[in-house]
Amino acid sequence: MNFETLINPPQSVFDQIIHWTTETEDWGHQLADYHYWSTSFDKYWLFTVVEKGTTNLVASVSLARWDDPKDTLYSVGLFYCVEKYRGQSIAKQLFEKAMSIVGDDNATLTGAVKMVDKYASTFGFDKIPAYWNNITSIKTQNLVMPEINNEEYGTKDWSDVDPELLYEYDRTICGRDRRKMQTNWFNLKNTFTKVVFDLSETNKVVGYATIRIVSKNKLSVSPFYAENLDAAIALLSALLHQIPLVSSYASLGFVHPSINQDTIRLLETFARTPEDINSVPLYKSQFTKKFISSPNAKVYSVWDSTHQFV
């Protein structure tokens, strides 16, 4: 069968990527993520191979360029090949095309458990942390809503908060400019975002979090940042109360540095029993030139496991 390459293809091709990656890899996305990535980064490429003369997906890889006054960072995502076409190096050739654009700049990706070594040895993503990012989840039917008597912290909807306060707090987490990304992310449909404040100080943001409805009717916590566990509890409580019919969704999932065990402690506060929580390694954030560290104690869940490292 003949194939052809499409760069930044129609939405219908992206929809197939989401369909197949959901079915075979259990990745969680929204169909609107294509527009989000295309408009939030400084440059975005979606490389795809389709069956010639059609838009039937064969393989994909995405590349985002994120400029900063001090450097440029690329991120690679959506590296996928439809199962019946695997073993022909079709997706690998797309990956190599993306890396030819990266050149000598730093690049990052999220390496799944079975792919970490290959990304390091074959493509040079060999700046790797010792810890994993775990997926920690609970079925929503096993959630409970405890009474939170916390006079230290208060929460607000993100739209009621000065954007500069949110931006300044986010710089303490990431260090790169995500102002535009924040606004676009929070405005996506089926997305809920709250901000938590220290009530003892005026306008002191101590965390924020977003929960998205994604593939397979799951609730994806992305991101979730907080200065401490008490602030995190207040934040999650406010978010869960904001989402109508929480128990109608399949599960609630966090993706977090495994060395931050407060994510599990947070979920235990909202679980019927600790045994209802499942936590397993999911991926590592890998880099080509320079590893970029994050304040792991504050990261209860990362932003976007396709194109973000924290």
From TrEMBL:
It comes from the Eukaryota. InterPro entries: Acyl_CoA_acyltransferase, DUF1248. This is DUF1248 domain-containing protein. Pfam families: DUF1248 (PF06852). It comes from Caenorhabditis angaria. Residues 2-172 form the DUF1248 domain.
